[in-house]
Write a structure and sequence with these properties.
By secondary structure, the protein is mainly α. It has one domain: Up-down Bundle (Four Helix Bundle (Hemerythrin (Met), subunit A)). The chain has four helices and no strands. Helix 1 runs antiparallel to helix 2, helix 1 packs antiparallel against helix 4 and helix 2 runs antiparallel to helix 3. The chain is elongated and about 65 Å long. The two termini are 24 Å apart.
Length: 154
């Protein structure tokens, strides 16, 4: 059951990052400043859920990989370090900064520079989470394949 929790938390993190990125792009490119404020507010409130899902994904992944080694696990661990660093150093501060600027109506060059940084960070998160998701599916496919062979041979 623990792999199911890991997959669920990872999928939730991927969904949240995708939602944040999509909502930001739509509000910035197609809607007005009030929509941007709404999106930035929603992101800040949902950030707590993202942090919990990322921590649960990392923690459960660490637990599941304990005592195991493979190139896939090593790549996933390496990506999670980048994801965590990017989240703490770029994404969280950017989200808070943009929220405070947007809610005070400060849509200036600084706002848009930080917005560009946040979009780049979001694209990085989305890419790395997707790669980890893909590698996780590969790992579970190997287990399912072995189980099918054993069942067929029994």
């Amino acid at each position: 059951m623990k792999p199911a929790y890991h997959a669920a938390f990872g999928a939730l993190a991927l969904l949240l990052v995708t939602t944040f990125l999509t909502a930001t792009l739509v509000s910035e490119l197609l809607l007005g400043q009030s929509a941007i404020v709404t999106v930035k507010t929603g992101i800040v409130y949902a950030m707590a859920l993202l942090i919990v899902s990322m921590a649960a994904t990392g923690g459960s992944g660490f637990f599941l990989g304990k005592g195991r080694s493979s190139p896939l696990i090593a790549r996933k661990i390496g990506r999670m370090r980048i994801i965590a660093g990017n989240g703490l150093i770029v994404m969280l501060p950017s989200a808070l900064f943009l929220y405070f600027r947007a809610t005070s109506g400060q849509f200036d060059n600084t706002f848009y520079a930080v917005q560009a940084l946040e979009l780049a960070g979001s694209a990085t998160q989305l890419t790395l989470l997707s790669l980890n998701f893909r590698d996780g599916l590969k790992m579970t496919e190997k287990k399912r394949s072995i189980a099918r062979r054993r069942a067929a041979g029994a």
